[in-house]
Design goal:
This protein is of the alpha/beta class. Helices cover about 40% and strands about 25% of the residues. The protein has ten helices and ten strands. Bound molecules: adenosine-5'-triphosphate.
Length: about 270
């Protein structure tokens, strides 16, 4: 089920200004790749171009060599957890995940409306799948709780469960650790690592550079819409261009560690 992601020379401009320009990257199957960069570097735009929430002006996106950039988001086989995503209020954790699972049943609306046997089979399958997804993120015991009552860390896990129910081959996580407390971050880090071990290819945008350095196999660094570095966490940490992008040219001295890029990473 693992899949390789290839982004080739993707660009997208807003009002004549490039948010993402000629970005190319390859994430081998089963890799956990982080994308970092200063504010406005183009990280969220790049994610939306890969996930299909935004159309690219030029360039291609392929999964295992099959181009998907013209497909709508729900037909790309990509699960996305957005920075701004919220759980659905007034629904239990289980029902929240059911919404994700419904997206992948094929029998669809007509079968449901006519109450065909196929619909009942599907419904049972969806319920089982939703429970499995909750279990995968450690929320099985919380299935019947109203989603909005879960602590923020568990709401994030719930969003992950919802994305997993769409049976993605690639997972895009946009700042999944933002706003979480230390213990919740730890839990999330363990969960993401486990999903990767289970065979998912994962792309992660995160401002918490320490979190990223610990988790990622490789890191791609964006600045002003372009890729300025790509390498292992150690390579990226040592890259002078990356330090300059984060701090600005005047403030960087080669011998000086940068708290964002190096200091926190130990
Ligand atoms: N819908 C839009 N309309 C106009 N400009 C946009 C739009 N989306 C993004 N931009 C611009 O594109 C550039 C890249 O934005 P983007 O949100 O992708 O960066 P980012 O790296 O995710 O930033 P942050 O870390 O602050 O979330 C910014 O200059 C932003 O103002």
């Amino acid at each position: 089920m693992t899949v390789e992601l290839t982004v080739d020379k993707v660009s997208r401009a807003f009002g004549g200004v490039y948010a993402v320009r000629d970005v190319s990257l390859t994430v081998p199957a089963g890799e956990l790749r982080a994308v970092i960069g200063p504010n406005g570097a183009g990280k969220s735009t790049l994610f939306a171009l890969i996930g299909g929430q935004l159309a690219a002006d030029t360039g291609t996106v392929a999964l295992d060599g099959i181009r998907v950039e013209r497909r709508p988001a729900h037909r790309r086989g990509i699960g996305v957890v957005f920075q701004t995503a919220r759980v659905f209020h007034g629904m239990t954790a289980f029902e929240n995940v059911m919404v994700g699972a419904h997206a992948v049943t094929r029998a669809g609306f007509l079968a449901a409306a006519l109450r065909l046997p196929r619909h009942h089979r599907d419904e049972r399958r969806i319920r089982e799948k939703a429970l499995t997804c909750l279990d995968r993120v450690g929320l099985a015991d919380w299935a019947d709780r109203p989603a909005e009552e879960l602590p923020l860390g568990q709401q994030r896990s719930l969003q992950l469960a919802r994305a997993l129910c769409g049976e993605p081959r690639l997972l895009l996580l946009d700042e999944p650790a933002s706003g979480l407390r230390a213990a919740e971050r730890e839990h999330l880090a363990t969960l993401i690592t486990r999903l990767r071990t289970e065979g998912l290819t994962i792309l992660l945008v995160e401002h918490d550079v320490a979190f990223v350095m610990r988790l990622a196999d490789r890191i791609t660094v964006l600045d002003l819409g372009r890729v300025i570095a790509d390498g292992t966490p150690a390579e990226v940490r040592a890259n002078p261009e990356v330090r300059t992008a984060y701090l600005g040219p005047e403030t960087v001295r080669p011998s000086e560690p940068h708290p964002g890029v190096e200091g926190v990473a130990g």
